[in-house]
Amino acid sequence: MNAFSLFNRLLDRLEETLIALLMAAATLIIFVAVVHRYLAGFAIPGVQDWLLSLNLSWAQELTIFMFVWMAKFGAAYGVRTGIHVGVDVLVNRLSPPRRKPVILFGLLAGALFTGVIASFGANFVWHLSQTEQTTPDLEWPAWMVYLAIPLGSGLMCYRFLQVAWRFQRDGELPHHDPGQVEGLDEPLPNDPHGDGMHPRYPQGGAQ
Q: In the chain, fewer beta carbons within 10 Å around the N or the C end?
Protein backbone atom coordinates (compact mmCIF):
# COMPACT_ATOMS: atom_id res chain seq x y z
CA MET A 1 0.00 0.00 0.00
CA ASN A 2 1.49 3.33 -1.05
CA ALA A 3 1.39 6.53 0.96
CA PHE A 4 -1.47 8.00 -1.10
CA SER A 5 -3.69 4.95 -0.54
CA LEU A 6 -2.88 5.02 3.17
CA PHE A 7 -3.77 8.71 3.32
CA ASN A 8 -7.13 8.06 1.63
CA ARG A 9 -7.92 5.20 4.01
CA LEU A 10 -7.10 7.33 7.05
CA LEU A 11 -9.16 10.20 5.62
CA ASP A 12 -12.10 7.86 5.01
CA ARG A 13 -11.95 6.56 8.58
CA LEU A 14 -11.60 10.08 10.02
CA GLU A 15 -14.55 11.28 7.97
CA GLU A 16 -16.80 8.41 9.04
CA THR A 17 -15.73 8.66 12.69
CA LEU A 18 -16.35 12.41 12.82
CA ILE A 19 -19.83 12.08 11.33
CA ALA A 20 -20.74 9.23 13.70
CA LEU A 21 -19.44 11.08 16.77
CA LEU A 22 -21.27 14.28 15.86
CA MET A 23 -24.51 12.40 15.28
CA ALA A 24 -24.23 10.45 18.54
CA ALA A 25 -23.23 13.49 20.60
CA ALA A 26 -26.01 15.67 19.15
CA THR A 27 -28.59 12.96 19.84
CA LEU A 28 -27.37 12.54 23.43
CA ILE A 29 -27.36 16.29 24.13
CA ILE A 30 -30.89 16.70 22.74
CA PHE A 31 -32.09 13.75 24.84
CA VAL A 32 -30.55 15.14 28.04
CA ALA A 33 -31.94 18.63 27.38
CA VAL A 34 -35.47 17.30 26.77
CA VAL A 35 -35.40 15.08 29.88
CA HIS A 36 -34.05 17.98 31.94
CA ARG A 37 -36.79 20.32 30.76
CA TYR A 38 -39.47 17.67 31.40
CA LEU A 39 -38.31 16.65 34.89
CA ALA A 40 -37.74 20.25 35.97
CA GLY A 41 -41.50 20.76 35.73
CA PHE A 42 -42.19 18.34 38.57
CA ALA A 43 -42.26 19.82 42.07
CA ILE A 44 -39.90 17.27 43.61
CA PRO A 45 -38.29 18.72 46.76
CA GLY A 46 -34.58 19.20 46.31
CA VAL A 47 -34.49 17.59 42.86
CA GLN A 48 -36.41 20.38 41.14
CA ASP A 49 -34.18 23.07 42.62
CA TRP A 50 -31.09 21.14 41.52
CA LEU A 51 -32.43 20.68 37.98
CA LEU A 52 -33.37 24.36 37.71
CA SER A 53 -29.86 25.28 38.78
CA LEU A 54 -28.46 23.44 35.74
CA ASN A 55 -28.13 25.77 32.79
CA LEU A 56 -28.68 23.86 29.53
CA SER A 57 -29.61 26.87 27.42
CA TRP A 58 -26.51 26.16 25.30
CA ALA A 59 -27.73 22.71 24.25
CA GLN A 60 -29.84 23.86 21.31
CA GLU A 61 -27.09 26.07 19.92
CA LEU A 62 -24.47 23.34 20.24
CA THR A 63 -26.63 20.73 18.49
CA ILE A 64 -27.29 23.16 15.63
CA PHE A 65 -23.54 23.62 15.21
CA MET A 66 -23.04 19.86 15.32
CA PHE A 67 -25.65 19.25 12.64
CA VAL A 68 -24.07 21.93 10.43
CA TRP A 69 -20.68 20.25 10.68
CA MET A 70 -22.26 16.83 10.20
CA ALA A 71 -24.06 18.04 7.06
CA LYS A 72 -20.91 19.52 5.53
CA PHE A 73 -18.82 16.41 6.07
CA GLY A 74 -21.78 14.17 5.28
CA ALA A 75 -22.02 15.82 1.86
CA ALA A 76 -18.39 14.87 1.17
CA TYR A 77 -19.13 11.33 2.35
CA GLY A 78 -22.08 11.26 -0.04
CA VAL A 79 -19.86 12.11 -3.01
CA ARG A 80 -17.41 9.35 -2.07
CA THR A 81 -20.09 6.68 -1.66
CA GLY A 82 -22.43 7.79 -4.44
CA ILE A 83 -25.52 8.37 -2.30
CA HIS A 84 -26.35 11.83 -3.62
CA VAL A 85 -29.49 12.04 -5.72
CA GLY A 86 -28.73 12.76 -9.36
CA VAL A 87 -30.83 13.17 -12.50
CA ASP A 88 -29.08 10.92 -15.02
CA VAL A 89 -31.91 9.98 -17.39
CA LEU A 90 -30.39 11.82 -20.35
CA VAL A 91 -26.84 10.77 -19.46
CA ASN A 92 -27.79 7.09 -19.42
CA ARG A 93 -29.29 7.40 -22.89
CA LEU A 94 -25.92 8.41 -24.32
CA SER A 95 -23.53 5.86 -25.78
CA PRO A 96 -20.57 4.95 -23.50
CA PRO A 97 -18.04 7.01 -25.53
CA ARG A 98 -20.24 10.10 -25.25
CA ARG A 99 -21.33 9.42 -21.69
CA LYS A 100 -17.83 9.49 -20.20
CA PRO A 101 -16.95 13.15 -21.01
CA VAL A 102 -20.37 14.31 -19.79
CA ILE A 103 -19.91 12.54 -16.46
CA LEU A 104 -16.37 13.87 -16.13
CA PHE A 105 -17.62 17.38 -16.85
CA GLY A 106 -20.24 17.05 -14.10
CA LEU A 107 -17.68 15.79 -11.58
CA LEU A 108 -15.17 18.51 -12.42
CA ALA A 109 -17.91 21.14 -12.28
CA GLY A 110 -18.78 19.90 -8.79
CA ALA A 111 -15.12 20.11 -7.82
CA LEU A 112 -14.87 23.65 -9.18
CA PHE A 113 -18.00 24.81 -7.37
CA THR A 114 -17.05 23.30 -4.01
CA GLY A 115 -13.48 24.56 -4.43
CA VAL A 116 -14.76 28.10 -4.94
CA ILE A 117 -17.00 27.77 -1.86
CA ALA A 118 -14.04 26.49 0.16
CA SER A 119 -11.89 29.40 -1.00
CA PHE A 120 -14.51 32.03 -0.18
CA GLY A 121 -15.26 30.25 3.09
CA ALA A 122 -11.60 30.29 4.11
CA ASN A 123 -11.39 34.00 3.33
CA PHE A 124 -14.54 34.66 5.36
CA VAL A 125 -13.25 32.64 8.33
CA TRP A 126 -9.93 34.45 8.23
CA HIS A 127 -11.55 37.88 8.39
CA LEU A 128 -13.98 36.68 11.05
CA SER A 129 -11.09 35.45 13.18
CA GLN A 130 -9.76 39.01 13.28
CA THR A 131 -12.90 40.13 15.12
CA GLU A 132 -14.16 39.38 18.60
CA GLN A 133 -17.52 38.04 17.45
CA THR A 134 -18.78 35.12 19.54
CA THR A 135 -21.77 32.77 19.50
CA PRO A 136 -24.80 33.90 21.57
CA ASP A 137 -25.03 31.09 24.15
CA LEU A 138 -21.73 29.23 24.17
CA GLU A 139 -19.73 32.41 23.62
CA TRP A 140 -17.30 30.56 21.39
CA PRO A 141 -15.33 32.46 18.75
CA ALA A 142 -17.64 32.59 15.73
CA TRP A 143 -14.88 31.62 13.29
CA MET A 144 -14.67 28.17 14.91
CA VAL A 145 -18.26 27.42 13.90
CA TYR A 146 -17.90 28.77 10.35
CA LEU A 147 -14.72 26.74 9.88
CA ALA A 148 -17.05 23.95 8.77
CA ILE A 149 -17.52 25.78 5.44
CA PRO A 150 -13.94 25.70 4.12
CA LEU A 151 -13.15 22.32 5.68
CA GLY A 152 -16.33 20.59 4.54
CA SER A 153 -16.37 22.17 1.08
CA GLY A 154 -12.64 21.53 0.64
CA LEU A 155 -13.12 17.86 1.49
CA MET A 156 -16.08 17.68 -0.88
CA CYS A 157 -13.92 19.20 -3.65
CA TYR A 158 -11.29 16.55 -2.99
CA ARG A 159 -13.92 13.81 -3.16
CA PHE A 160 -15.16 15.08 -6.52
CA LEU A 161 -11.60 15.03 -7.87
CA GLN A 162 -11.03 11.59 -6.37
CA VAL A 163 -14.16 10.15 -8.00
CA ALA A 164 -13.30 11.84 -11.32
CA TRP A 165 -9.80 10.37 -11.30
CA ARG A 166 -11.07 6.87 -10.56
CA PHE A 167 -13.76 7.18 -13.22
CA GLN A 168 -11.19 8.31 -15.78
CA ARG A 169 -8.96 5.37 -14.85
CA ASP A 170 -11.47 2.54 -14.34
CA GLY A 171 -14.70 3.87 -15.83
CA GLU A 172 -16.56 3.16 -12.57
CA LEU A 173 -18.54 5.47 -10.33
CA PRO A 174 -19.36 4.90 -6.65
CA HIS A 175 -22.79 3.34 -6.43
CA HIS A 176 -25.12 2.97 -3.49
CA ASP A 177 -27.51 0.00 -3.65
CA PRO A 178 -30.65 0.80 -1.59
CA GLY A 179 -31.63 -2.88 -1.69
CA GLN A 180 -28.51 -3.98 0.15
CA VAL A 181 -28.73 -4.43 3.91
CA GLU A 182 -25.51 -4.00 5.84
CA GLY A 183 -24.61 -7.11 7.77
CA LEU A 184 -25.98 -9.60 5.26
CA ASP A 185 -23.55 -11.62 3.19
CA GLU A 186 -25.85 -11.52 0.19
CA PRO A 187 -28.07 -8.55 -0.66
CA LEU A 188 -31.77 -9.30 -0.86
CA PRO A 189 -32.91 -9.62 -4.49
CA ASN A 190 -35.09 -6.81 -5.77
CA ASP A 191 -38.37 -7.47 -7.47
CA PRO A 192 -37.83 -6.80 -11.21
CA HIS A 193 -41.44 -5.68 -11.43
CA GLY A 194 -41.22 -3.47 -8.32
CA ASP A 195 -39.84 -0.03 -7.71
CA GLY A 196 -36.21 -1.15 -7.53
CA MET A 197 -35.90 -0.18 -3.88
CA HIS A 198 -37.84 -2.69 -1.78
CA PRO A 199 -36.48 -6.26 -1.51
CA ARG A 200 -38.38 -9.26 -2.83
CA TYR A 201 -38.89 -11.85 -0.12
CA PRO A 202 -39.36 -15.58 -0.75
CA GLN A 203 -42.93 -16.83 -0.92
CA GLY A 204 -44.40 -17.02 2.55
CA GLY A 205 -41.81 -14.62 3.99
CA ALA A 206 -42.20 -11.06 5.27
CA GLN A 207 -44.00 -8.62 3.00
A: C
